[in-house]
Structures are given as C-alpha cells and as structure tokens.
C-alpha cells in the first residue's frame, strides 16, 4: 500500500466541499422557530429576540468550524465510502490503522537492511584498515562509504498542516541518499512527538515522510521549528 506515493497523491487532495452552505445558513430552522416565539413589540421581546439571534449566530459559526474540520479530514483520507459525518470519521480511523501497519512494515524492512549492511561490513575486509584494528583504533571505512554516511540530509521541503486543534500533518521531503530513511526516523524518535500514524514513500530520487501527530495544543509553527531544528543537525 502506498497511500501517499505516485501520481495519485496529488489527485487525492482535490476534494469537493461536502456540506451545502445553505444547510449551515438555515441553522436547522432555528431562526424561523425563534422569530415566531418572541414578540419583538415588547422590551422583553426585543431583548429575548436579540439573545436568540446571538445564539443562532454562535451556533452557525460552530457548525461552520465543524464543517471546515471535516473538510480537512476528508482531504487527508484518500478513500471515503460515504459523505456523511459518521462515515468520514470511520474511514479516517481505518486509514490511520492502515498507515500504522505500513509504518511497522517499513520499520521492519529498515531494520533488516541495517542488519544486512552490518553483516556485509563485517565480512568485507576491504572496508577496514588492518593496521587501525591492530592498534585498537576505530576501523576506517572506504572513502566512498564514509562520504555517503557522513553527508547531511538534504531537506527539500517541510510542511506542517493543522488538523483541528489537537492534531497536525507533517510532510518532510528529502533527497534520497544512503541511510536517509534510517537517520530521519532516528531524529524524529528523539523528539517529544506523539505520532499517531506515519508513512514513508520513495519516488523520483526523493523520500517523502508523512506523519500524523497529536499536538496537545502546540501550534503548527512551533512544531515546524522544533522538527526543522532537529533535521538541521543531521
């Protein structure tokens, strides 16, 4: 599964608004009901009518914000079965579970690749200097290997998008080099991040690391600065 990779990635984010704005403006018929209940000819009626209108405006604003959050959630999930609120939330949960399974699979592959590379280094005498080993010094890797492992990660793009008040989506695009995914995962694990789901995609010489984080009220700007500072040191 590759929910973020390939040419379909761009198409998945272009989604229509799924609630009619007329439904929001109508406030479920509250205005008509309240306007007929209060008598605007008396002082008490005027005050009550004003309070009712204020409540209607607040309710309309609340529904508008809720609708915007659902729209954001809808844009992040590539496959929505139905357009009602319950289906959108359920599909989002299922998608997060899929991402978590994908993360575990990729981390397993990374661990296997690291073990394989370590085994090759131990079995390849050309990678080590016998004189240094005899003197108890750290083995010296070949110039090509040393330059690949020591080269910094080239972060091409870092985006942080808020998803409501308690979550955000982080997208990190890097140039694909040897050990890029390993070093990137290690750097993120050192940060105090509550990762709900993650996905790593490789395409066209690039690596795209996408994470869904629980922010606990931390702003997206602060989150971006924290992650950027950690990646700068790599």
TrEMBL record:
Major localisation: nucleus
Feature: compositional bias, Basic and acidic residues: 117-127
A single MF term (Gene Ontology): protein dimerization activity
Record protein name field: BHLH domain-containing protein
Alphabetized SMART domains for the sequence: HLH
GO cellular component assignments: nucleus
Native organism taxonomy: Eukaryota, Viridiplantae, Streptophyta, Embryophyta, Tracheophyta
Keyword annotations of the record: Nucleus, Transcription, Transcription regulation
Similarity-based family: Belongs to the bHLH protein family.
UniProt keyword annotation of Membrane present: no
Domain annotation BHLH: ranges: 50-99
